[in-house]
Structure formats: structure tokens, C-alpha cells
Amino acid sequence: MQLSRRTLLQAAAALAVVHAPLKAGAAEAVRVDQLWPTYRDRFVQANGRVVDTGNGDISHSEGQGWGMLLAGAAGDWDAFDRIWNWTDANLRWSGAPLYAWKWDPKTGEVVDPNNASDGDILIAWALARAGYFTKRTELVEAARTSAVAVRRLLTDQVAGVIALLPGFTGFSKNAVATINLSYYVFPAFAHLNQVDPSPLWQMLSVNGAQIALHARFGPHSLPPDWLAVHPNGQMQPAQDWPARFSFDAVRIPLYLYWAGYDSVQHLGTYQTAWAAPDAPAWFTLETGPNAEYEASNGVKSIAQLIRTHRPEGGTLWPAVKEGDYYSASLAMLSSLAAEERGAK
User: Fold this and answer.
1) 3-state secondary structure of 154
2) CA dist 124 to 3, 118, 147, 197, Å?
3) Which of 49, 63, 224, 323 could tie 237 with a disulfide, CB 3.0–4.6 Å?
């Protein structure tokens, strides 16, 4: 696939119009505040650590950010503060307001000091939302400092456009950038622009959405979890990971929809791939079979969101009550996206 700067610039104005302000809707779907107590009791410890039950009970910046976001959406400010305080005390870098991505209960400490840009964005977004809603200026300031760090340290010129690097180190080599489109938390960018006004946030949103349109491979025309972008604009699945639309990439249509990129152009390929009720957990983008097992209820909730705008309670509740941390989190986020876009 080839991506030119001119193509991106020509698309910018058209793509920008989809960014109407988010609004709360009286969706008939199950609300986040109904789901939240079950989610909190299963995955949030008393000290505020969010536990990834499907991955050795580790904690990571992504989960802490999602926990803060969901607690705030549910109006559970006690849980929000506990999650935020644990995050800031245990994951924050000493030299910058970014957060280590992985904390392991086996050692009781961070075991990989590198950050993950989606975790940083989610934390900053949750802080900004909470700060404005509760009028707590210290939260708004914390959101601002993290947003500035993301903008300055985690974005770069790639093939003539602004791209989001997945972490501070390890994702740019020999002028080839490795990006993860699921790290583009599209609905967060407008909010981060409020605390850190900069044209970069809109550029990041537009450029990321356009990359997602072009980075499509395989029989289902889907983006990979990890994408290599070359200086000339050529794109291909990154060689160090399986060429799959898998557990990371399933978040791409969720975030696109949530931010208003909900046209057939943006979402049609995902709707087609997930049309069957027993769609596989992941799709290969090269020769070979897809997953032999079905997508989780969390992934199915995203499929329902982008197809009908209203995830079904019969999918959401099993994900939150019985699924692992990741499936439950995807279901919660799908419910929240439906509320904030307004079920149609």
C-alpha cells in the first residue's frame, strides 16, 4: 500500500467534518453506570490497581486509563481517585509525565519501563474529562502536562505526515516507523486539544484516520495490529509481529466510530468481516487460516456498535460478568461510545 502526503492533505478537510462534538444520548442500550459495579468488583482492587485477568494478573497503563475513564463515566469518583493515585504512584516516569506500560504482581514493580502511547493518552483523557466535570484544577493540570508530553515525545513526521509512535523507544529504525493504529484513541484528541491547544491534535486525528483507510491487507481488507511505514509512504504489516487483524486492531473501529468517523468508507470493511455471528477472534492478512475460535463478547460488542449503534445487553452483560479483563473492557467501552455518540 502507498500513502502520499498529498492524499492525506486533500482528505483533511473532508475528514474533519465528521468531528461533531460528542454528546450524551439517551441510548436504549445498557448504560455504563449499570455495568460499572460488576466491572469494578471483578477487575479493580481496593488500592486502585486494575487487573488484567487474561494476562497473568498484570497491570498496565492502558488498563489504568480505561479504569479511570469508565469510573468517571459512571460517576464513581472514589474509584477514579483510587485508580489514578495507584497509577501515578506506581507507573509514572521520574523524568516525564508518561507512564510505564507494565507492572507485574510477581515482582510488585514495573517490569518494562517503556511506555505505551495509548495508555498515556487514555490517562490524560480521563484526567481531562474528570477535571472539567468535577472542576478540580489539579486534574486538568495533570492532563495538560501528560498531553504536552505525548505531543512532544510520542509524535513524529512519518512519510510526510504526523504519526503517533507506540512508545518512546524502539519504534523507529532505519527511517522506518512501526505504528499501532489501535493506539490512536481518536475520541480523546479533541479533549486533549482543550487542555493543550495545538493544531497537532487535529492533524494526528486526520492523518491517523487516513492511514487506517490505506493500511488494509488480505482478503478482508483489514489493518494489521502492527504496521511498518516507510519514508516513501509504502506500508506493510510489520515483520516482527504476525500479519493479523487481531486483539489490538479490533479497537480501531471502536475508536473511529466514537470520534465520528462512522461512514461506510471508514467502517464498512470491519462490518463485512464481522458480519457472521461466529466471526473468528482474528483474521490472517496473509495466506493461511483465521483463528479457529470465535471472537469474544467484547469484540462482538464492537461489531454491534459499528453496525447498529447499540451493543446488545445479551452481549454486554456476559462479557462483563464472565469474560476476562480485555473482553469486559471492550464491552464497557462499546457501551460508553454508544452513549456518547447517541444511539441512532
Assistant:
1) coil
2) 30, 10, 6, 14
3) 224
Q: Which of 62, 76, 196, 225 is catalytic?
A: 62
Annotated catalytic residue 62: yes
Distance from chain centroid for Cα 17 = 21
What letter does residue 221 receive in the DSSP assignment? Answer: T
Residue of 121, 84, 87 whose CA lies nearest to 102: 87
Confidence of residue 279 (pLDDT cuts 50, 70, 90): very high
The most distant pair of C-alpha atoms in the chain lies apart, rounded to whole Å, by 53
pLDDT in tens, 223-257: 999 999 999 999 999 999 999 999 999 999 999 99
Is residue 263 within 8 Å of residue 343, measured between CB atoms?
no
Cell numbers describing residue 319? 462479557
- 89-to-60, 68, 164, 239 alpha-carbon distances in Å: 13, 15, 26, 36
CA distance 238 to 335: 31
209-to-41, 241, 326 alpha-carbon distances in Å? 35, 22, 24
Q: Which fold has domain 5-18+30-245?
A: Glycosyltransferase (1.50.10)
Which amino acid, 160? G
**Looking at residues 73-85, what average pLDDT do you find?**
98
339 is catalytic: no
Q: Which of 171-175, 183-187, 308-312 has the lowest mean pLDDT?
A: 171-175
The C-alpha torsion from 248 through 249 and 254 to 257, rounded to 10°, is 150
CA distances from 316 to 137, 279, 300 (A): 34, 17, 9
CA distance 101 to 114: 6
Average pLDDT, the chain: 91
Q: Compute the distance between CA of residue 161 and CA of residue 226 in angstroms, rounded to an integer.
A: 18
The model's confidence at residue 29, banded by pLDDT at 50, 70 and 90, is: low
Which candidate in 52, 118, 225, 262 is catalytic? 118
The predicted model gives 271-289 an average pLDDT of: 95
